[in-house]
Amino acid sequence: MFITKIPSSFYLLSFIFLLQSAFGLEYKCLGVQNSTISDLYCTNLNELFSYLSYEVPANGFALGTKGHDADKVYGLTIGNVDIKEKDCQSCIANATNEIRSLCPNSNGAIKWSHNCTLKYHNVDFFGHIDHETWFFTKDPQNLTNYQSIRQKKSEWLTQLAGQASINPPMVLFRELDIGENNKLNGSVQCTRDLSSLDCMKCLSDSIGFVPKCCDSSKAVRLFSGTCELRFEAYYNKA
Ligand SMILES: *[C@@H]1O[C@H](CO)[C@@H](O)[C@H](O)[C@H]1NC(C)=O
Ligand SMILES: *[C@@H]1O[C@H](CO)[C@@H](O)[C@H](O)[C@H]1NC(C)=O
Ligand SMILES: *[C@@H]1O[C@H](CO)[C@@H](O)[C@H](O)[C@H]1NC(C)=O
Ligand SMILES: *[C@@H]1O[C@H](CO)[C@@H](O)[C@H](O)[C@H]1NC(C)=O
Ligand SMILES: *[C@@H]1O[C@H](CO)[C@@H](O)[C@H](O)[C@H]1NC(C)=O
What we know:
Elements: E1 2-4, H1 8-11, E2 19-20, E3 26-30, H2 39-59, E4 61-66, E5 73-79, H3 85-102, E6 108-112, E7 116-121, E8 134-138, H4 146-166, E9 171-177, E10 183-190, H5 196-213, E11 219-224, E12 227-234
Helix pairs in contact: 2-3, 4-5
The structure holds 2-acetamido-2-deoxy-beta-D-glucopyranose (5 copies).
């Protein structure tokens, strides 16, 4: 898989701060750069991270705040759909360790890894669609029968989004039969602070972007700050 940034013009936003990190996929420092981070804010952040690391493995999602007023920090973590509890746990542990050194002078950051997403900020971002932070990865290989399944795939993704958005915890993992015993595995998920309507909107926007970035790819992952969309084809070699 290689990483391609969504052109900023599409979402009218800048990807200047998106950089590829060694173990994860990507991160973005949020808010004012080079801000002075108070000791109290750091303490709150560390407490929040331990809380999130403790909460997330069993549920796949955690949301919390620590502190008050100027030193209040908001954070959330989400484990990816199809991973084991221990992989989620170690992913979050790594992300909380790495994110501070990646964005030492920011009061917020988001980090996407293969198995989890972590976000924190001193601004209350709960319940708001995050369209400011996006990126996707795609397999350079194409679907072998792309033209014949194009329409079906798009309808299927919309269906997944519709079902996920109205069924807490807004996570869905399904297969689509693409003929000759070949399967397309797909998953969608939203951060659970979103309303059903906003979850659907976040996923619809992602689905709408697929034809612009990677419709024909054999495997795609498209992330925003508040939802994730994936599909990957498995070909039966027999
Ligand atoms: C932030 O600090 C670094 C290192 O001190 C400096 O090179 C950079 O220009 C600063 N950026 C801003 C936006 O002030
Ligand atoms: C991510 O999770 C999967 C499935 O649980 C696991 O096989 C894989 O090793 C994990 N990746 C990392 C980098 O831990
Ligand atoms: C955590 O980081 C270590 C090294 O920093 C790396 O070897 C390991 O694969 C990472 N685990 C996950 C789950 O990302
Ligand atoms: C995949 O399809 C795209 C668009 O049709 C094309 O530009 C690209 O070269 C193809 N990649 C491979 C590896 O065949
Ligand atoms: C996704 O594909 C893999 C490989 O074929 C398969 O083992 C797995 O069961 C599929 N996932 C689902 C939800 O069926």
